[in-house]
Automatic annotation (TrEMBL):
Domain Oxidoreductase molybdopterin-binding: 228-359
UniProt keyword terms in alphabetical order: Membrane, Transmembrane, Transmembrane helix
Protein name in UniProt: Molybdopterin-dependent oxidoreductase
Species per Swiss-Prot/TrEMBL record: Nocardia vinacea
Pfam families given in the database record: Oxidored_molyb
Stored CDD domains: SO_family_Moco (cd00321)
Length: 360
């Protein structure tokens, strides 16, 4: 049970850490533009493994619950370390899985900023897991080699209060529950499983067949996005040019089939068309390289701007999109224009573009 739970937690931690680095990249981090579906897979695996870990955690706690209260409460320094690591591990894991589940539904009954807290507590949980594994390594080794016997200081639970259930029944039940939980959300990432995604809040429905995380009403950009005086400002060094939407439409148009994948685990493929970013920059001046900042009509919060690395900027499928699935962008999808780039989180695919600036 511990192996299954630990594997799910480590997969969830690894893919979550990757997502954090993509959004807040350290100087040494490198994330490719291709394959275009890679982030869709890694973030889908993050959410699916986290949800699948919930029944595994419950079964694991049920299995070890009597041992959590064995005497002595304090004991030797090694026992104190073991008890402390268990307390931190259980608390941190419950926090991570419960808040992560609520984040999938975009329900935030707390006042802290979820990404920061989630990232910090993940490190606490994995640190506690490492300490726990180090302390229990001899027991784990003996258990895996089928040599474990009951310690005389830790007698088995009283059979009169704890009914016997076979190991096979427990493992089978936990496995079925984990698979069922994973399937209940996997459909928001894996199209052919959408029929089973009963707990997935976004499984393919939305304007023009693509889900929406943040609407224009929530962003407060409706009037500015529909303003006839709207202009997209593009800046390269000392050169600057403004484009109306009609002028963007008059430039060479490029089509690309790209998924949009969000940190909550949902993703959907779509056919986008618009101006290739390199073509748009060429209409202003000479783009000699560098990262690019995109600003939204939405001025505040994490959706207000994004930085596109050069390796994504020069990709032929990176567009200032004007249509989706053959139709003019819906206002909730970023009308009058939006960024769509390969292998990027949805939170970085800035909608309702107002400015594009090549950084020095």
């Amino acid at each position: 049970m511990g192996i299954a739970l630990g594997s799910a937690i480590l997969l969830c931690f690894g893919t979550g850490l990757l997502s954090h680095w993509i959004q807040h990249p350290p100087s040494w981090f490198w994330w490719p533009a291709h394959p275009v579906w890679l982030y869709r897979v890694t973030q889908g695996a993050h959410v699916i493994s986290g949800v699948a870990a919930i029944p595994l955690l419950l079964v694991k706690l049920w299995a070890v619950y009597p041992r959590l209260f064995h005497r002595p409460i304090i004991g030797s320094p090694l026992r104190i370390l073991e008890r402390g690591s268990i307390a931190i591990l259980v608390g941190a894991t419950i926090f991570q899985l419960s808040t992560g589940l609520l984040n999938i539904a975009q329900y935030y009954p707390w006042k802290f900023f979820f990404p920061t807290a989630h990232y910090a507590m993940a490190s606490v949980a994995v640190g506690a897991l490492a300490v726990h594994l180090a302390v229990k390594l001899p027991v784990i080794r003996d258990a895996l080699q089928h040599r474990l016997v009951e310690s005389p200081t830790e007698p088995p639970a009283d059979s009169s209060t704890r009914p016997h259930i076979s190991r096979r029944a427990v493992l089978t039940g936990a496995g079925v529950a984990a698979v069922a939980a994973g399937l209940a959300v996997a459909g928001q990432t894996i199209p052919f499983l959408r029929w089973a995604a009963v707990l997935a809040p976004r499984s393919g429905y939305g304007p023009q067949g693509v889900p929406v995380n943040r609407s224009a009403a929530a962003a407060g950009v409706g009037d500015r996005a529909r303003d006839p005086e709207y202009r997209l400002t593009v800046t390269i060094g000392d050169l600057q040019r403004q484009f109306t939407r009609d002028e963007l439409l008059s430039l060479p148009q490029t089509r690309a089939r790209l998924p949009i994948a969000c940190v909550e685990g949902w993703s959907a493929g779509a056919d986008w068309s618009g101006v290739r970013l390199l073509d748009l920059l060429a209409a202003v001046g000479d783009y000699s390289g560098g990262d690019i900042r995109f600003r939204s009509l939405e001025q505040t919060g994490i959706y207000g701007s994004s930085i596109l690395p050069q390796r994504h900027a020069v990709d032929d499928s990176t567009l200032v999109a004007l249509t989706i699935n053959g139709e003019t962008l819906d206002l909730d999808h970023g009308y009058p224009c939006r960024l769509i780039a390969p292998n990027r989180p949805g939170v970085l695919q800035t909608k309702w573009l107002s400015e594009i600036e090549v950084l020095p």
